[in-house]
């Protein structure tokens, strides 16, 4: 299935480098991260995937840093 996501250029470059370091395409790397996240035990308060689910078709807002000075590594376990 094809899905379009919009992310900051700097974040995209960092993600592509991380994917290449693992010998994966960006799509394969993101799919791997999603699989790990979906297999993990649900956390109290939900997470990004729950926020994106929009079960009640309500809009939810969350902020993604736009520049590298605000970037932080997110660990999905």
Account of the 3D structure:
This protein is mainly alpha-helical and 77 residues long. The chain has one domain. Helices cover 43% and strands 0% of the residues. It contains three helices and no strands. It has helices at 9-21, 26-39, 48-53. The chain is globular, with a radius of gyration of 14 Å.
Can you give keywords for this protein?
3 helices, about 80 residues, mainly alpha, globular
Total strands: 0
* Span between termini: 24 Å
Total domain units: 1
Average pLDDT confidence is 75
One letter per element, helices H and strands E, the order comes to: HHH
Helix content: 40-55%
Radius of gyration: 14 Å
Flag low-confidence runs: none
What is the tally of helical segments?
Answer: 3
Largest sheet: none
Tell me the strand percentage band. Answer: under 5%
Shape: globular
Structural class, from helix and strand content? mainly alpha
How are the secondary structure elements laid out?
Elements: H1 9-21, H2 26-39, H3 48-53
Helix pairs in contact: 1-2
What's this entry about, in short?
The chain is mainly alpha-helical and 77 residues long.
């Amino acid at each position: 299935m094809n899905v379009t996501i919009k992310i900051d250029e700097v974040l995209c470059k960092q993600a592509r480098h991380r994917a290449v370091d693992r010998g994966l395409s960006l799509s394969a790397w993101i799919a791997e991260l999603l699989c790990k996240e979906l297999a993990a035990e649900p956390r109290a308060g939900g997470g990004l995937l729950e926020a994106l689910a929009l079960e009640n078709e309500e809009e939810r807002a969350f902020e993604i840093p736009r520049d590298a000075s605000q970037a932080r590594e997110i660990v999905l376990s």
